[in-house]
Amino acid sequence: MTIYGDGSQTRSFCFVDDLIDGLLALMNDSPQDFSGPVNLGNPAESSILELAKLIRDLTESSSNISPDN
């Protein structure tokens, strides 16, 4: 399994349904109820290397994880 870079880059994942619900709630809210940016993502971040290891473990694969530097 090839990962780009060294795998230390992080991402935050969320369910699409949850994101859409959050967007709809924001659009239906009055503008004076909040100010500034709104984060609709997941506050927990995972590294790409952690994600690759999780996928390998869940699929019971013996694939190597190799960075593409």
What is the typical, i.e. mean, pLDDT?
Answer: 88
Query: Helical amount among residues, as a percent range?
Result: 25-40%
Alpha carbon gyration radius? 17 Å
Low-pLDDT ranges:
none
Oligomer: single chain
**DSSP E strands, number:** 4
How many angstroms separate the termini?
Answer: 14 Å
What is the N-to-C order of secondary-structure elements (H for helix, E for strand)? EEHEHE
Largest sheet composition = 2 strands, parallel
Strand order of the largest sheet: 1-4
Shape: elongated
The share of residues in extended strands comes to 5-15%
The secondary structure category is alpha+beta
Task: Reconstruct the topology from this structure.
Blueprint: E1 2-4, E2 10-11, H1 16-28, E3 46-47, H2 48-58, E4 66-68
Parallel strand pairs: 1-4
Antiparallel strand pairs: 2-3
Description:
With 69 residues, the chain is of the alpha+beta class. The protein has one domain. 35% of the residues lie in helices and 14% in strands. The protein has two helices and four strands. The strands form two sheets. A two-stranded parallel ribbon has the order 1-4. A two-stranded antiparallel sheet has the order 2-3. The longest helix has 13 residues, at 16-28. The protein is elongated and about 50 Å long. The relative contact order is 0.35. The model has no long low-confidence stretch (mean pLDDT 88).
Concise synopsis of the structure shown:
With 69 residues, the chain is an alpha+beta fold.
Name the features.
69 residues, 4 strands, alpha+beta, two-stranded antiparallel ribbon, single chain
